[in-house]
Amino acid sequence: MRVVIDTNVLVSGLLSPYGASAEIVRMAAAGSLDLLYDARILSEYREVLARPKFSFEKSKTDILLDFIEHYGIPVAAMPLSIHLPDLDDESFLEVAISGKAECLITGNVAHYPMRSKRKMRVFTPRRFLNRYF
C-alpha cells in the first residue's frame, strides 16, 4: 500500500512506542507500507528528528531515514494549484497526489482542507489503522 507519512506521525511513533503512530512506523519498517517521499520530505524528517528536544539517538534516526530512502519510493511531485494553510505541509500532499498514494497519514488532518486534497484521502494514524487493518 502506497502512503505518505507526515513528519508528526514519524515523531509520535518514535516517542510513544505503543500508539497508532508507532504501529505505522513499525509497518513501514517491516515493508508492509510503501513510503512515498521526495527530497523535501526527507529533509524535513532529518531536520525534525535531529531537534534536541526529542533526544533521539542520531545513529538510530539515521538508520530509519536511510531505510526510508533506500526502500521507499521517490516521487517527482507536481506543485498544488492552491496553497495549504501551512505551506510546510504542501510537499506531503503533492507527493501523495503525484505518487498516486492510497492516502496521506497525519496527526494534523485539519491542515489539509477538503478543497485542496484533490480526492486524496487524509487519515489520522488511528483512523488509517481502523480502516485498513
Explain how this protein is built.
The chain is α/β, with parallel strands linked by helices and 133 residues long. The protein has one domain: Rossmann fold, CATH 3.40.50.1010. Helices cover 46% and strands 11% of the residues. It is built from six helices and five strands. Strands 3-2-1-4-5 form a five-stranded parallel β-sheet, with helices on both faces. Helix 1 (7-15) crosses helix 2 (20-29). The chain is globular and about 40 Å long. The model has no long low-confidence stretch (mean pLDDT 94).
Write a brief structural summary.
The protein has 133 residues and is of the alpha/beta class. The protein is built from 6 helices and 5 strands.
Number of helices: 6
Measured between the Cα atoms of the first and last residue, the distance is 12 Å
Provide the low-confidence segments as ranges.
Answer: none
Strand content: 5-15%
So, the CATH homologous superfamily?
A: 5'-nuclease
Report the strand count: 5
